[in-house]
Structures are given as structure tokens and as C-alpha cells.
Amino acid sequence: MKKTNNKVEVTIKVSQETGTAKITYGKMFLDQRNMDKRGEKSIYLRAEYHKRLSRIAQIIGGDKIPLYVYLDNILSHHFDLFETLIIEEFDANCKPLF
After folding, report:
1. Which of 42, 56, 88, 92 makes the best surface tag, with the fewest CB within 10 Å?
2. What pLDDT digit, counting tens, does each position of 61-84 carry?
3. Could you give the 3-state DSSP secondary structure of residue 52?
4. What is the DSSP string of 14-78?
């Protein structure tokens, strides 16, 4: 990790194997998880991203997972992966009130 002028460059190596079991993209992101129902918030995506995500969910996920669950899984992974960096930058930009 390199930090220059408040920008952080991160090199991430993602291993697709843990122990002897191979983890696939589908297992990581396209398995139904904790979300039982759709959230009450709307988000907007680029049309090209919506198309890509929908196709991935349809083809790799076997059309068995709703798009909102797929996005929730992606975001959950993102926050797990970058939690430390997010907290560091948040704290660096958060000025105490007193």
C-alpha cells in the first residue's frame, strides 16, 4: 500500500483457493445470503453496469438470485476488503467538533 497526497494505492491479490476447496465467483457473490427481501432504498446505476450485472446474475447465477442480492453481496465484500482503509480515510477527514 502506497500513500501519496491523501490518495492510497492498494494492490490486492485475491486467492481463489482456501484450503482444498476452490472458491468460485459464483460462490462468492451469487449465492443467496442474508437479504430476505428487497430494501426500501433505490439506487441508480450506469446502464452498461446494470446490463453486465444482470447478465452475470442470469448466466453464472443461473437466474436464481435477484439483482439486489447480488449487489448486496458485492458491497458486503467491498466493505470487508476495504474496511481498514475506509476507517483511516474517514478518521483523517473527520474533524472533531471541539
Report:
1. 42
2. 999 999 999 999 999 999 999 999
3. helix
4. --SEETTEEPPHHHHHSS--S--S--S------HHHHHHHHHHHHHTSTT-S-HHHHHHHHHHHH
